[in-house]
Amino acid sequence: MPMIGPGTPWNGAATVADALRVAAGRGFPAGLFSTDGLARLEAAAGQLPGPLTSTFGFEVALDQAAGGADLAVAVTALHGGREMLAGLSGPGSPLPRSDEPAWAAVGALCRAWALPGSTLEAELHNVALEFDLPDGQGGLPPPNVFVGARTGILPPRPAHPGQLELPVVGSEAWLLDTALPLLGRELSPGRRDALVRCFEALPAGSRAFQVGVMLARPVEALRVCVLGLDYEKVAPFLQRIGWPGDLEELHVRLGALAANAESVILDVDVADAVLPSLGLECFAAEDGDQDLVQRWSRFLDPLVRAGLCRPERSRALLEWPLMIRESEAPSWPRHLREASEFVGEAVEGTLVRALNHVKLGWRPGMLQAKGYLRVQHSWRPVRRPAAAEAAD
Questions:
Q1: Mean pLDDT value across the chain
Q2: pTM to 2 decimals?
Q3: Whole-number Å distance between alpha carbons of 95 and 47
């Protein structure tokens, strides 16, 4: 069992590290984690209680040899994770250092989110905690926080000639006036204007569905994540929001690579102005007709040829997808086994590994690719023995 601080397991209860070990199956793909890197992941995951999340994942740089990874967990209101972070679920808070500013801010946000009838209860769907785990990092660092909206911040409605103008509360008010201040990000007029400019520039069919606050990094910039943009709409959107980078250079470096993605999410960094750094999250549709490995290969192969992804990293990503069934894992985490007993005998728990997306991160003159790997708990029908099916 990974230890906390000087050697105290988290409250003696199941942790995310228990699910991480089960998710290994017969072993993680070669070329993904080093021994030291996996130990850092287990040490951090061992300080997070298992019931906090049903979905966690890792971020790995694709141009580097096997090493460590950053850890992320998604928290919703469905299974009590929100209440755990808010400190409302009884003794045994999951916050290792709840007096530390970042963790105190997370607790304040989740308490407001858990308040019945509140703006955040209506608008906020999930909170993702991301932990930077560089070489030499021990235990669990403060988190970076991404707030995910139920519907997202939508494009403004087109004006109709002759329409009576009425005062309207913008769909971003919950974020600007409540969520960000609770996370310690009181907005200067310049930053507020820059964010609103991003929201007002959203084209039809898109939405800002997530905003990140880098509480663990010495930066004040916020990250706005935009869903529903075709790649062809990225450049016009960046132009409208005053992105200071070179659009032609961006297209030359990213255009051919992004064209192999089946959908994209744009990440824009915003301070008192829009910053030149950005990210393009590239996805393959998991419900497509063609084999998913083939579709991801079509995206990853050009990255390998461009020197953005080591060949062994590409192979590891393609070998990552796997389903582990509760019936096949004697060490199934206790809290997940108890949940299975509650839902009944017709279904069993599974941990499903998937390649979530690959992000192309751009700073002027520098392009880097990172892979994002997901582990998600879900329910599946119990597999019946062949003899029993024949008897039916």
A1: 89
A2: 0.91
A3: 8
